[in-house]
């Protein structure tokens, strides 16, 4: 299963947006994140729908933060991205009638649910200003 790096990439983009203090184009973000501007637009649209950013078309346009990073948590962004799966570890479902497989899946499921619950709880405690708290580069 392929890892989902959207959360860390979006956090990277939001931190840059905050430090730059101006609208940032999809092309600029694409260069920052080493990805295609179409991917940036698709992802930023999710944050816009959730109310964390806005966009302006045309000359001097781009994506801008609506509020302060101190008002947004990792959990907020995780939810805006559609709550992607936290872990890529999967349970076996090839032998659904096998008692051993059922016991293993039950054990793994409980541990993974507990770990995910803890992670999401911590995500709700961390605001974006805490992770973007670096001195902005001078322009």
TrEMBL record:
It holds the Pfam family Rrf2. GO terms for cellular component: cytosol. GO terms for molecular function: DNA-binding transcription factor activity. This is Rrf2 family transcriptional regulator.
């Amino acid at each position: 299963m392929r890892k989902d790096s959207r959360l860390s990439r979006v956090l990277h983009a939001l931190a840059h947006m905050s430090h730059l203090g101006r609208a940032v184009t999809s092309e600029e973000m694409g260069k920052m994140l080493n990805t295609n501007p179409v991917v940036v637009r698709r992802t930023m649209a999710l944050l816009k729908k959730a109310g964390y950013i806005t966009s302006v078309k045309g000359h001097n346009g781009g994506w801008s933060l609506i509020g302060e990073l101190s008002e947004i948590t990792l959990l907020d962004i995780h939810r805006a991205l559609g709550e992607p799966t936290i872990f890529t570890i999967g349970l076996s479902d090839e032998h659904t009638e096998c008692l051993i497989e059922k016991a293993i899946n039950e054990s793994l499921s409980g541990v993974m649910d507990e770990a995910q619950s803890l992670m999401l709880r911590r995500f709700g405690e961390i605001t974006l200003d805490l992770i973007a708290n670096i001195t902005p580069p001078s322009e």
